[in-house]
Input
Amino acid sequence: MQRRAFLKLSSVAAAGTAVAARVGPGLAQAGPKPDFTLTIAPVEVELAPNHIISTIGYNGTSPGPLLRMKEGAPVRVEVINQTDVPEQVHWHGLQIPAEVDGADEEGTPAVPAQGRRTYEFTPKPGGTRWYHTHTMAMNDLHRGSYTGQFGFLMIDGPSNPTQAGHFDQELFLALRDWEPFYTSQMIDTDDLDPTLPEPEKPKVLDTRPNGLEIGAGIYSINDKALGAGEPIRVKSGDRVLMHLLNASGIEIRHLALPGHSFHVIALDGNPVPTPQAVEVLLLGPGERIDCYVEMNQPGVWIMGDPTDDIRNAGLGVVVEYAGQNMQPTWTAPRKLGWDYTVFGKPGTAATPAPANVLDMVFEKIPRGAGKFNSFTVNGAPYPHGQEFVMKAGERHRLVFHNRTDDAHPLHLHRHIFELTEIYGKPTAGVMKDTAVVPIYGRAAVDFTADQAGPSLFHCHIQMHMDYGFKALLRG
Output
């Protein structure tokens, strides 16, 4: 499904970056007219005929509107909260002050219940970003990322790699799960690759019963389950640019389009040093992939999750060539492997060398939070007795030791990091803000602490973050 409509950036009267005061119910707000307005309120999403869900979204829809901003041009975004609980809007992937980043842990003021707040910031860097709620859900499956509060944010500018070249179509496609429920079954069906090394696997495994997990009842790409809504219509010879997002708060997902390759040009909105054509994509919650597909296999195809149960429950979309009239075809990909390092600089290591190295050990305590698992970073859940201190302006290396039987999409707020090691391989040049560390795996990332104030680090799976898997890095 295409989402081509967008809010245009109007002229900006104020320069610089600031945080506006909160405004309560019924109070007028002084200042220039906002460039964008987001209203948080109940919405209905018709995923399929006779399958309508009620959730919370932005501007009457889910996904919310595509916001296009100009890199380096200050903006004002007014957020009106028409719900009865405080909310946060996180600008995922932007390098902006903590006061407007949209995280309670960093000190961002919330948007009050039945109130409003104006965010003022200068968007950077260019590329595919997104915005979403950043509230904790805990045991409430109607809060946080289980709701429909998410949307694409495109920052247009010189550093946006998807502006170069000619494309016949531009698509914004968000993978999503709905109707979450508790289950005692292990549901992680989309780890990166079961053949990957497991350097952090404990010699003696914890055999205590696992806590409750979260599953989903129905899936969609944007607001439609597979078979509902309009297909993606293409012509032979088209080059179709796809901005893909995993907007789930639950699971890592693969995506395949039989007979076609995805030409990956950017990860998390950042250009890759070595663009590659791959058969299967993998996106952890919070990750984005920019790629194009050369439409050279006429027919009617299903683009979707290779797991039959997930795809048949909605996680897919029909791709229809002009002049073709047949039932959609699905063919399973040959393998599901995924390797970030193929997009890096071959045979090189990250430079310059980091000034400081911080080891971060992640462990899971089965049923450590009653019915639910809890998670620790370096032996303690959030909040920690002493947060992690990063010297401002210096280059730091975080070494992730995943001693759990889950793969974790790890997100660092307000910074872009360079992947320097994963799957036992050194790499360089792959710039991201979210990366999946495999089961019992190890990875390392480098970043420069160039954003003043606290930066939140966390797993982007909602339940993991809620129950301890987060930390503050202080500059």
Q: What stands out?
A: The two ends are 42 Å apart (CA to CA).
